[in-house]
Specification:
homotrimer; alpha+beta; 12-stranded antiparallel beta sheet; globular
Chain lengths: 349, 349, 349
């Protein structure tokens, strides 16, 4: 009689080159889109209104790329990070294809790196995850790495393989969004500012804030079918050093991106992820604020540009002074997220 | 470098005659309808079942007019009431056209009145807001007024313009609902009582109650893309005189209307708003009870009538004694809503 | 002037043979399916992905039978159990037809038994409830019984009628699921284990757990349009022996079934309910764990089998030791649910 419940993979189980086909494909619907609005407060017009999207040459309002990302990410959790101690980073993320309601997403990961830690108890695992739609087309792809427990501290260390990762997605390799700027309505979108109006080095305080409740992050994280126990099991978490449930980092990313509407209304579409760190934990009852910095700009041609943005989410304090590091360059304790991505934005023309 | 985040309009920004085109059009879907059921507990058959609606001559279950109202209202918040101290009232609201899943709503407001307060720090702004569908047809329209902060107390007072508002929508000008009473099923609707059965002056205790949680009102208010900070930002609210997040008044209206099913099952469709006051604040943890009074009746012809109803929502106590005013005619402290509207109701025939 | 609000039926109102047509038919949509995922954490592939379901010969992802059950059950509450003291049991439940998004469910109950209790204040009422779709086809049927208050202790006891109920649904009378095992993908489903791999007597600890919040169970229970006051009215519950809102038993069943994915991924479809008891109350803040025992197996032919499963949900403790009874055969105080059902499962072939 085999044990039927799955304890998840441990560090020893990850072999460089292995491919993991993740369970539970997921048809994404307009219901996921509505729940995403209700749970994150997103107001980007292109994901909110069929008419607005159609004026931009799309067949209707697409699924927010971040929602697609969370769904793909969620599928990887039972195989990759069920026994993870920490999610360490993201790199080389690309949103390759518009997802529409009715599309079915599935996820596959390739193990691209392993390195045992000197304590012999944990190791770092790098995977490249790709999300596919029902036609087998690549929808999004990204690298993430996590620190994963060993099953048995006595098992031998594997040969270290550390993947060569780009510091950022370069302008030349940015995916081109499928929407056209020709019919983009700068009144209905909520802001008059286009690609030309943003300067490298510009910082934007997004002003608004969201206090997060347990029910909200749990509903969101279950919607993504992400099974990480730290988000859901208060009995287990009561015994952890935090004493409470941890909020899935993707919830923080989405809340911060929704707050970023106020200042970046027209940079609705995330097209690439350069890097990201969940700097400090977020808990229910905390209030999320956010600010952005324009790190770079890239011309995508035909009326479109891209902004490389640092998105910083902070808990329980306003961002008027753009908090990030202390005098010694260490993250402030109220910073929860430092996220580096590219977003497409139309030119005013 | 222009400041990119929007601080909202202040009293000085409102010029009578100005038109404000609000951002973020919104395609309303059956997902919004399901979330509305889950968040409000509505049980009106016509919004719950395609078959029931089709038997009444509609193409399928429409969107509850109150849900459409909240979505239209939500769009106006960033432009009208982000710097409001209080939402003072509603008048002359009309539901002009059935909204179906798939329709895209957008909102436009005209400034129809301004009056600076004697303190020189705030003023009252009146707007008429109209919601349009994707075909450009008027879906609903209403007047609301709010007390809005001045940016600068020293700026001169504008000339007072106080709009002439009807005390109520008169029977002659009531919108006629699109459903037909011919196929209305008084068993599946949940009550045998039709237009003939209600008497002017009749009071109905709706008996049931809903305790409201932070997550519930926040999800609802975000679904409506209403950005008023008082509902979401506990850090800011902790410093307010309430110390806590305020629940959007529309949540109270919807909960009370859902409770009103028990006693008014067949008066499902709101067709006009005469007046409304959010008398006292509602907070998470409070329990909402409701009662109704029939204020007037109007024959709409062809098997339909309308009831003019006072809907009173009360917190943390039952409504068996129809609480509203104290001996001196002042609202009791547990009354949260006094709402005056017309609902269509079929005749038994 | 008739009292318009409905106090619900009391024990005296139930006459054996009477048929109760329940109010508010309900079109079930993909939004209900998404909300169900978000609220319960279900990961069964067949309810999650159109492609997976289509590979199994269905037209698309069906509605989880448990979601359909809760919706049908919810409709019966205003007529059957509004004045119930306790929900005592289920028997002879059968899921007869696949429900798809767009189907409209309505419910009818027949009173099949009554027995007054010796205290003269309450009685047991048995009903058989059947859910129908828009074509009038039976979708599911089950018997439940509840202890209901008498309106007047002085009213005479009716003649006792105790229905003859099967101890379980026998293998010969099990509904055959509509999906085919031919295209069933044991990788995407999340587990390699098929019908052949489970043994009678096998126990499975489902390992994971969900802490439940007030907002979550309230949203779910309202989505099912279940109006039982004990779930929603904290003012009334504060005066009860529990002092708090009770969580609808169906929420516990669904959470436990979602947890059962880890160990029973391929036993996605519930086809019959043999018995069920809500052993102890579940409250917000409690953490639900679950374990299963294989009670029986039945061959359904053509690549399909069925497992008879005991599903035990437990609060606030892990299930590694399969907690259920104490040494004297009484339920442990942390057991909340003992549920006996059949699920279809494909053979590996």
């Amino acid at each position: 009689m085999t044990v039927k419940s799955d304890p998840g993979n441990f560090f020893e189980d990850f072999i460089v080159g292995d491919e993991l086909i993740h369970a539970t494909p997921r048809t994404v619907t307009e219901a996921d889109a509505a729940l995403y609005l209700g749970l994150t407060g997103s107001r980007y017009a292109i994901y909110s209104a069929d008419t607005f999207a159609q004026d931009c040459g799309l067949e209707g309002a697409p699924i927010d790329p971040l929602l697609a990302f969370h769904i793909v990410f969620g599928k990887t959790v039972p195989d990759i990070s069920l026994n993870a101690v920490a999610n360490l980073g993201y790199a080389d993320g690309r949103f390759l294809r518009t997802v529409y309601p009715g599309d079915t997403l599935r996820a596959v990961s390739e193990v691209i790196g392993v390195r045992e830690n000197s304590n012999g108890k944990t190791g770092v695992v790098w995977v490249r995850t790709t999300g596919y739609n029902q036609a087998g087309e690549e929808v999004l792809t990204y690298v993430r790495w996590a620190m994963v427990n060993k099953r048995d501290a006595a098992s031998p260390a594997p040969e270290t393989v550390a993947p060569d990762l780009p510091a950022s997605v370069t302008p030349e390799t940015l995916p081109r969004p499928e929407f056209s700027s020709a019919g983009f309505d700068f009144t209905l979108s909520g802001s008059p500012f286009g690609f030309e109006d943003y300067e490298i080095g510009e910082k934007i305080d997004h002003v608004d804030a969201f206090t997060v409740e347990e029910a909200e992050h749990q509903i969101a994280t279950r919607l993504y079918q992400n099974t990480a126990r730290v988000h859901f099991n208060q009995v287990e978490q009561a015994a952890s050093r935090f004493g409470r449930r941890l909020i899935y980092g993707g919830v923080a990313i989405s809340l911060a991106r929704s707050l970023a509407f106020n200042g970046l209304s027209n940079a609705a579409e995330m097209i690439a992820i350069n890097a990201g760190q969940h700097v400090n934990p977020l808990f229910a009852g905390d209030t999320v604020f956010a600010w952005s910095e324009v790190l770079d700009k890239a011309d995508l041609g035909e009326g479109l540009g891209a902004l490389r943005l640092r998105l910083v989410a902070v808990k329980n304090r306003a961002c008027v002074d753009f908090p990030r590091h202390d005098a010694e360059g260490k993250y402030l304790p109220d910073v929860i997220l430092d996220f580096d991505y590219w977003a497409a934005i139309p030119k005013r023309g």
